[in-house]
Every structure is written in C-alpha cells, then in structure tokens.
Amino acid sequence: RFLGDARIVGICDLDRESGARVAAEHGAKFTTDYGELLNLPGVEMVDICSPDFCHAEQVVLAAEKGRHILCEKPMAMSLAEARRMQDAVQKAGVKFMVGMCQRWRPSHVRIRELVRQGAIGKPTFARFQLKGSFFLYPPQSFYRKKEGLGQFFHNGAHWLDEICDFLEAVPESVYAVTTSHYLPTDRMETPNYHYASLAMDGGQVVEIEYNQLLVDPPAPTSMHILLVGD
C-alpha cells in the first residue's frame, strides 16, 4: 500500500498478533527485531512509535544505518539522550523530526498565521490551560510509574511545543509546582496537576497549567490559549 509516493516495507512490534496484522494489511514484512527492520531492502525512513525510554537507542541505530527518522514525542528521557541523538543524526547526515502533531491542528495553524502576520504586534505573554481527566493507562503501564517521568513530560510536551512555535522562542528558565489527586483505584506514581511559569529567550513570559484533577466522574478536556502582544 502506498502513502503518496511512500510504501510501508516493514513493521516491527513486540506484539506479534497486532504487528503481523498491520504488516499484512500493508503487504509489509513483520519482525520483532528492530535491527532486522533497519536492514530490510528498501527501508529509507523509520517512524519510531515506541515507548519514550526506547527513543534514544532506536534513533541512534537508525541514524547509523543511514535511515531518515520520524520520532514520537517526547524526543528523549533526558538532555544527555537528546544530545546523543542529535550527534548521531548530524554525523550520519540524515533527516530527523519529532512528531509534534499538534502543530497541524487547524486552530494551531491559524493562531500561528495571525501571530506571524503581526495581528497582536510582538507577543509578550502567553498562557496555555488544559483541563480534564488523566489518561487511563493500563494498570502496569510504564506511564503510570515514576520512571516514566509523568504526564506533563509525556503529553505536556505538546503544549510547550505549541507555545514555542507561536512565540518562536524557547524557555530559558522555569519555575514549576505539581500535586496529585487520584481515586484509590486509579492512583499513579506521578502528579496530575502541573503549573509552570517560564521565561523565554525572546523576552516573553509564559504560564502553562496542565490540570488532570477532574477524575470523578471523567471530565471532557477543555483547552484555552491566551496570547498577548504589544
């Protein structure tokens, strides 16, 4: 099966049943061995959709094989991992992109267009608020454990990326507080309320509130974005 002028030639998954089914749908080779996937004939690019802690190793291996890379967010579990990935990609001369899919939402595209057109002048302040219920990860999920670094790390990367894209700036310093509130049956090892105040390298001030306290009953998600210009 072709996606534009691209063809899926291989699928790698530790879940043999679902992986083999998806591979069959696309007429692709199935394997549980990532190294074998990278060596398949015709592989020019890999889409890495594995858990966060796998990204660094898999990106480095793909770069060393000369494969272009689309990697699920967040890019890495630490700054050291991110730098290792960057070094491998630059050394290999391959293309690399983190899949920050929120940038393609129509509302995001429109906001970015308005800011670029100068509709509010120079942006000076931004606030992003997302409120709702926490994600119902399976009981033994990596994302329930403290090693997963929490829901803001895994999902909030989207919201920080959106603000960085709107402002064309990145954080220089951060102050953040968190807290937790879960039902006894759904407790996780990481917070589900996050508030961060950020100073950006473009001189802007940013507030991000990632609120997943509304757990009983599960509440629909609401999102509010405020941008202030001069």
Topology of helices and strands:
Layout (H helix, E strand, L loop, with lengths): L1 E2 L2 E2 L2 E3 L3 H10 L3 E3 L2 H5 L6 E4 L6 H10 L3 E5 L6 H14 L3 E4 L6 H11 L6 E9 L19 H4 L1 H12 L3 E9 L13 E8 L4 E7 L10 E8 L1
Parallel strand pairs: 3-4, 5-6, 6-7, 8-11
Antiparallel strand pairs: 1-2, 8-12, 9-10, 10-11
Description:
By secondary structure, the chain is of the alpha/beta class. 29% of the residues lie in helices and 28% in strands. The chain is built from seven helices and twelve strands. It has helices at residues 16-25, 34-38, 55-64, 79-92, 106-116, 151-154, 156-167, and strands at 2-3, 6-7, 10-12, 29-31, 45-48, 68-72, 96-99, 123-131, 171-179, 193-200, 205-211, 222-229. A five-stranded mixed β-sheet has the order 9-10-11-8-12, with helices on one face. Strand 10 and strand 11 (205-211) form a beta hairpin. The relative contact order is 0.13. The mean pLDDT is 93.
Biggest sheet, in brief?
5 strands, mixed
Structural class: alpha/beta
Q: How many separate helices? A: 7
Helix content: 25-40%
Number of strands: 12
Distance between the termini: 50 Å
Spans of at least 5 consecutive residues with low confidence: none
Strand order of the largest sheet: 9-10-11-8-12
User: What value does the Rg take, in angstroms?
Assistant: 20 Å
Following the backbone from N to C, one meets helices and strands in this order, namely: EEEHEHEHEHEHEHHEEEE
The whole-number mean of residue pLDDT values reads 93
Approximate strand percentage? 25-35%
**Given the C-alpha coordinates, what overall shape results?**
globular
